[in-house]
Every structure is written in structure tokens, then in C-alpha cells.
Write a structure and sequence with these properties.
By secondary structure, this protein is mainly alpha-helical. 55% of the residues lie in helices and 3% in strands. Among the domains are: 34-110, Orthogonal Bundle (Endonuclease III, domain 1), CATH 1.10.340; 238-313, no CATH class. A three-stranded antiparallel sheet has the order 1-3-2. The longest helix has 19 residues, at 5-23. It is globular and about 80 Å long. It binds a DNA duplex through α2, α3, α6, α8 and α9. Belongs to the Nth/MutY family. Keywords: 4Fe-4S, DNA damage, DNA repair, Glycosidase, Hydrolase, Iron, Iron-sulfur, Metal-binding.
Length: 316
DNA sequence: AACACGTGGCC
DNA sequence: TGGCCAAGTGT
């Protein structure tokens, strides 16, 4: 007898959660004694950033800023500097702003509902649901890129999810969420982990997948993606220049003059003094003056840098 | 709705 | 070697 949709969903829940129990990574923000703040910080750091790169920075942050109030007590520039090379440094700014809001409006605690979390800077649909679920055990539908990929393959039979989250995907995710609170949290974590470790974007490990027996994509013969993901431009972009400038500002302890960012005017006679590696890297890009000015203006507008004594520095 | 936004490891 | 990709958000 063919199982109904309800039985099929329950079987998926059982198989994937069991797989998680035996195969999940031992991440510090998953330990029972990790604070909601620790989980919150991890979620912001993990946005578009691999776990292995987040791990050491998260440990330093937890040691230095164990509470929202501790972070809020320092300047946003310190947060940006301690963000180091995680990328998208605006996240550090928003995390600092979120800590400030928690201190001012939430008694120094991480808010518990998705709606309140959503009001914080840097927190969108995914992060609000993830924190409510993982930190507070609430039944929220978590949808990230891993979960979308698992759903696309196992349920919809496609190689990749659509470029942007669709209403249909959201409906599917909502329908799949176990009714029980604790089971819903386990499900969220388990599907995400399956997508991260097994049902990966490139060369998925279908041989060890707990649900390969009823994967719609496998059943369809693993059809290729029906669209070509557009690449992320990098070389020569403002992003690259901003990144190089931020690397300079992170290591600088005094304001950096704009002319220093341009590099030695006479390349045939480089300065005798050794210059810091980040500055040398920026000079090597040979950024047109106009683009450098635009990048600096962007950083100032985003509050990632500020003017001081005619030079540039992290906000302090 | 499409685009901008960092960084570095991998195949 | 270089394009692809990673627990997204804000505009």
C-alpha cells in the first residue's frame, strides 16, 4: 500500500533526524550550554560564510564579548576590527547595532520571538527563524540555502532551487515542518546539516544519503540544473577595492591618509620603508583614482570608516 | 526585483 | 587556473 503524504513526511522526519543524530558536526554553538547570544552571533557570522572560517572568530568573540552589553560597550570599529577577514564587514556593524538594541530595548537579552528578532539590524527572515528555533526552541520554519537545495532535490526533483526563494518553496517548507516544537527544531537543524554535508551543491554524496531511496531528483536520473547561476563578479569591482581598503584600516592604529591608499606615485622609486602587507596589496591593484574615491565614499556612507584628521580610520 | 556586498578554499 | 560557492540582508 502506497503511503499517504502524511506518512511520507513522517518517514522523512525520522530518517533525516536519525541521520543527524549519528552524523552531525560537534559545533560549539550547538552545545546545550551555549547562550542565545552565542547562537545569535554564530548566525550572523555564518551568513554567506563557511563554518570553518567562523569557528575561530566566534570563539574570540565569545571570550571578549560574552553578552550583548559587553559588545555594545565598545565602539563599532572594534567590532569591525575583530570581525577580521570573515567578509561582508557591514555584518559586524549590524551585529554591534543589534547588541546595542538588545541592551537598550530588550533588557540586555536576545529577544525570543521571530517578530522581535526581525526588528534587529542584520536579521532577516532566515536569521529570525533560526534564532527563535535554535536558541529558544520555538516552532519556526527555517529556510536557508542548504534546506532549499534538499527540498529541491528530494521533493521537487530539481538539481538546484530557484535563484530566489519562491512562495511555493515556502509553502512546501511550512508543510514539512513537524507539528511538535522539539521535533521542529531537530528537523530544521537536521535538514540544514544534510544539505551542508551530504546534499551539497557540487558533487553531492548520494551514496551515503539517508533518503536516496525516495529522492525525486535521483529517481528522475539527476537532471542538470535548468538555469545557469550567474557568477559573482570580483576582479576590478568596487567590492574588491572596498575589501582591500578595509584590510588596511583593520591593521592601522592611526588614521590613514588618502594619498597613502593610492600608492607611490613613482613606481620606479618605491619607498625604502617596508609598508604593511594590506597596503601593498591595495597598491598592487592599481586602482584608478576615481574608483578609489568612489570606494572610500561608499565606506564612509556605510559607516564602515570615518574621517579623522583628514585621514581614514575604523569608526571609533 | 535585481544588485551590491568580502573572503578564501576547492576541483 | 579561475569560476563556483558558502547558515543572507538591505535597498
Amino acid at each position: 500500500m502506497e503511503p499517504g503524504p502524511q506518512q511520507a513526511a513522517e518517514q522523512l522526519h525520522t530518517e533525516i533526524i536519525s541521520w543527524f543524530t549519528a552524523n552531525s558536526r560537534d559545533l560549539p554553538w550547538r552545545k546545550p550550554d551555549c547562550s542565545p547570544w552565542g547562537i545569535f552571533v554564530s548566525e550572523i557570522m555564518l551568513q554567506q560564510t563557511p563554518v570553518v572560517r567562523v569557528l575561530p572568530v566566534w570563539e574570540l568573540w565569545m571570550q571578549r564579548w560574552p553578552t550583548p552589553a559587553a559588545l555594545a560597550a565598545e565602539s563599532s570599529g572594534e567590532a569591525v576590527r575583530a570581525w577580521d577577514r570573515l567578509g561582508y564587514p557591514r555584518r559586524a556593524l549590524r551585529l554591534h547595532a543589534a547588541a546595542t538594541a538588545m541592551t537598550a530595548d530588550f533588557a540586555g537579552r536576545v529577544p525570543e520571538t521571530a517578530a522581535e528578532l526581525l526588528s534587529l539590524p542584520g536579521v532577516g527572515t532566515y536569521t529570525a527563524a533560526a534564532v527563535a528555533s535554535f536558541a529558544f526552541g520555538q516552532r519556526e520554519t527555517v529556510v536557508d540555502t542548504n534546506i532549499r537545495r534538499v527540498h529541491a532535490r528530494a521533493l521537487t526533483g530539481k538539481a538546484l532551487p530557484a535563484p530566489a526563494l519562491t512562495a511555493a518553496e515556502m509553502r512546501l517548507a511550512v508543510a514539512l515542518l513537524p507539528r511538535d516544537d522539539a521535533a521542529s527544531v531537530a528537523w530544521n537543524a537536521s535538514v540544514m546539516e544534510l544539505g551542508a554535508l551530504v546534499c551539497t551543491a557540487r558533487s553531492p554524496k548520494c551514496e551515503v544519503c539517508p533518503v536516496r531511496r525516495h529522492c525525486a531528483w535521483v529517481a528522475a536520473g539527476k537532471p542538470a540544473p535548468d538555469y545557469v547561476p550567474k557568477g559573482q563578479a570580483w576582479a576590478g569591482t568596487d567590492r574588491q577595492v572596498r575589501g582591500a581598503i578595509m584590510a588596511v584600516l583593520r591593521q592601522a592604529r592611526t588614521p590613514v591618509q588618502r594619498h597613502a591608499l593610492i600608492g607611490p606615485a613613482d613606481l620606479a622609486a618605491p619607498p625604502a620603508d617596508p609598508i604593511p602587507a594590506p597596503l601593498a596589496k591595495l597598491h598592487a591593484l592599481k586602482v584608478p583614482a576615481e574608483q578609489l574615491a568612489r570606494a572610500v565614499a561608499g565606506l564612509l556612507a556605510d559607516k564602515l570608516a570615518e574621517e579623522h584628521d583628514g585621514g581614514l580610520q575604523l569608526p571609533g
